[in-house]
UniProtKB/TrEMBL annotation:
GO terms for molecular function: hydrolase activity. This is Alpha/beta hydrolase. The keyword Hydrolase applies. Keywords: Hydrolase. Residues 41-291 form the Serine aminopeptidase S33 domain. It holds the Pfam family Hydrolase_4. It comes from Allosphingosinicella flava. InterPro entries: AB_hydrolase_fold, Hydrolase_4, MAG_DAG_Lipase. The lineage of its organism: Bacteria, Pseudomonadati, Pseudomonadota, Alphaproteobacteria, Sphingomonadales.
Length: 311
């Protein structure tokens, strides 16, 4: 199916923005986007972005599924995008509040939206989706993990040492400090950060365009508190927990990923009983890459959902 291009720098016609209140009172911004009236409803798809992401960043991918008949829902994680608030607990304190938000939200979402129900999670969103599948067993027909944060790519530094380093910085009172001091220089130079995320200069520029209009969307580089929280959360995805996830899973990954650990993704795919792994020649943001990679990934997702989440 040929999908017409979307303006990646505008809210799409027909999309409805609202807020959802978590049990502790935190309000999350939500987008609901029903399929076009002339397209049969295929089911409902929940999209979960990564750390520092916001709804608008993945409008292009969501438009693709929208045009195929999926009722699209996405939200900004607490502490990100337009789900930020002053005076609340820092998201760096841990991932459990995010996981609880997902569990409660998805339960209400499934009850209110037409099936079959599927979920797509990118990076941190993929990690939280995988944890939710293992710990809460939401009744999704199928799920897709895109470059999921099952491990962090720490280069030559072993993961266990990186986790210990994060705890050390917390112990000496520097947990709220960013993990690198050259972040602003990297942003100003652009190339270093872009190369980690996507080969598409245009799509990278879209993110910065939204940052310019909504400065609060830019979270900056992770802190040591966030890194320590990430390692605590990833430790919950034990071999036993992964083996308990029975629903069909498609995992997209890349051996060129400089943010998440592809070796950990490969091992998780081996342990998950009903998972298939697809590798792409790509940077981290596979769904925001140049068209040859991006469209190949979208077509792989379409074929997977056609097999495992028939309407």
């Amino acid at each position: 199916m040929q999908v017409t291009p979307i303006d990646r720098r505008a809210h799409p016609e027909g999309a409805r923005f609202s807020s959802w209140t978590a049990p502790d009172g935190w309000r999350l911004r939500v987008m609901d986007w029903p399929p076009p009236r002339d397209v049969p409803v295929r089911g409902s798809l929940l999209f979960l972005g990564g750390r520092g992401d916001f709804i608008e960043k993945y409008l292009e991918a969501m438009h693709h599924w929208h045009m195929r008949g999926w009722h699209i829902t996405s939200f900004d994680w607490r502490g990100q995008g337009a789900s930020r608030k002053d005076g609340g607990p820092s998201p760096d304190a841990g991932f459990d509040p995010l996981l609880h938000d997902l569990a409660v939200f998805s339960q209400e979402w499934i009850a209110a939206h037409p099936g079959p129900h599927v979920a797509v999670g990118h990076s941190m969103g993929g990690h939280l989706l995988l944890r939710a599948l293992a710990e809460a067993s939401p009744p999704f027909a199928a799920a897709v993990l895109v470059a999921p944060m099952i491990g962090i790519n720490t280069g030559l530094l072993p993961g266990w040492l990186s986790a210990r380093l994060a705890r050390f910085f917390q112990k000496i009172g520097r947990g709220s400090f960013p993990v690198a001091r050259d972040y602003q220089a990297a942003i100003e130079g652009k190339a270093a950060r872009q190369n980690r995320l996507t080969s598409s200069a245009d799509r990278y520029a879209d993110e910065k365009w939204w940052h310019g209009r909504q400065p609060g969307y830019d979270l900056g580089i992770p802190t040591w508190d966030w890194v320590a929280a990430a390692y605590r959360s990833m430790a919950a995805s034990t071999p036993g927990a992964l083996k308990a996830v029975r629903i069909p899973l498609l995992i997209l990954a890349t051996d060129r990923d400089r943010l998440v650990d592809t070796r950990a993704i490969r091992e998780a795919a081996r342990l998950l009983p009903n998972a298939e792994l697809a590798l792409f020649d790509s940077a981290h943001e596979i769904l925001r890459e140049d068209d040859p990679v991006r469209l190949a990934a979208m077509h792989r997702i379409d074929a997977f959902l056609d097999r495992h989440a028939a309407s």
